[in-house]
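Re: the request from the purification team.
They wanted to know what the chain is likely to look like in 3D before they choose a buffer screen. I agreed to run a prediction and write the result into the notebook, where they can find it.
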Amino acid sequence: MPRKVLEGRVVSDKMLKTVVVAVETTTRHPLYNKVLRRTKKYMAHDEEDVCQMGDWVRIEECRPMSRRKRWKVIEIVRRASPEIEVNA
């Protein structure tokens, strides 16, 4: 059976060799047929520690690496655009 592959945006890179990826899925409500957006966060292993916040990445299911980490980053689809931070 092939491993699951998901695509999402990195929302946190504060841990060592770990990123938090938010994956958004759309489903249709069974009664009202309204399109619902669901967001789920996955902790993924980033071996080279190259992912940054805002990057779009592809993650793949893998063996458990820790209590909550069961995914690994297989590629960076798109880099985050450099934004100017203003501390007000």
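For the purification team: The mean pLDDT is 94.
Please add any questions underneath this entry.
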